[in-house]
TrEMBL record:
PANTHER family for the chain: ZINC FINGER AND SCAN DOMAIN-CONTAINING, ZINC FINGER PROTEIN 81
Presence of keyword Transcription regulation: yes
Location in or out of the cell: Nucleus
Residue span, C2H2-type domain: 8-35, 36-63, 64-91, 92-119, 120-147, 148-175, 176-203
Keywords: DNA-binding, Metal-binding, Nucleus, Repeat, Transcription, Transcription regulation, Zinc, Zinc-finger
Family: Belongs to the krueppel C2H2-type zinc-finger protein family.
GO cellular component: nucleus
Organism (species): Marmota monax (Woodchuck)
Entry's Gene Ontology molecular function annotations: DNA-binding transcription factor activity, RNA polymerase II-specific; RNA polymerase II cis-regulatory region sequence-specific DNA binding; zinc ion binding
Entry-linked Gene3D superfamilies: Classic Zinc Finger (3.30.160.60)
Protein name per UniProt: C2H2-type domain-containing protein
Lineage of producing organism: Eukaryota, Metazoa, Chordata, Craniata, Vertebrata
Length: 225
């Protein structure tokens, strides 16, 4: 163990280990054996430690808390990746383009951009996606599924961004503010429409008053004296 020797080799992929117990755990990846089953949802895992982390999604337990910002995590690996956002450490470097990532999951997602691999396939139409969230959203278009529900009124939406915009009706949040008149809007489309009217109305603005005109034939300035 101290010499770095790894005498235990996987017959499937050639990966070597310092301990036989480590090899046995690894072999379950190849055999597909998943003997550790979650009693809540039935999902199975090949390691007890992974099951323990998974069960926290049901209990809500997040034992790993960041001292810098207070954010908490269910797994130690996610916690370590998060800490690197504060330290700036990016140990995973892409050999294709040199881009560095702060964790293995982000690094894997980046590598797929080079290989063009899209491993998640819709069983309805065969369309492939890079991320599970993209596949889930797409699948909703086939069945009319609307998994995102407003906790205030119960209205359902097929996409999470749609729910976020809708919830502003209840919260009163209006993040889009017109720099011309100060009027605020809860969604970008209404904000853009308003800005278009502001641009049009202010094309010919009277220098003697705040009134704007859409045509160049404005009244004689003496009318405001």
């Amino acid at each position: 163990m101290h010499t770095g020797e790894k005498p235990y080799e996987s017959s499937d992929c050639g990966k070597t280990f310092t301990q036989k117990s480590r090899l046995n755990i690894h072999q379950k990846i190849h055999t597909g054996e998943r003997q550790h089953v979650c009693s809540e949802c039935g999902k199975a895992f090949n390691q007890k430690s992974i099951l323990s982390v998974h069960q926290r999604t049901h209990t809500g337990e997040k034992p790993h808390r960041c001292n810098d910002c207070g954010k908490a995590f269910t797994s130690k690996s996610r916690f370590r990746e998060h800490q690197r956002t504060h330290t700036g450490e990016k140990p995973c470097v892409c050999t294709e383009c040199g881009k560095a990532c702060n964790g293995r999951s982000n690094f894997h997602k980046h590598q797929i951009t080079h290989t063009r691999e899209r491993p998640l396939v819709c069983h309805k139409c065969g369309k492939a996606f890079l991320r599970k969230s993209e596949l889930t959203t797409h699948q909703g278009t086939h069945v009319g599924e609307k998994p995102y529900e407003c906790c205030d009124c119960g209205k359902l939406f097929s996409k999470k961004p749609q729910l976020k915009v809708h919830q502003r009706i209840h919260t009163g949040e209006r993040p889009y503010v017109c720099s011309e008149c100060g009027k605020a809007f809860n969604n970008r489309s209404n904000f853009n429409k308003h800005q278009a009217t502001q641009t049009r109305d202010s094309a010919y603005r009277c220098s003697y008053s705040v009134k704007g005109f859409t045509k160049k034939s404005i009244p004689n300035p003496s009318a405001y004296l």
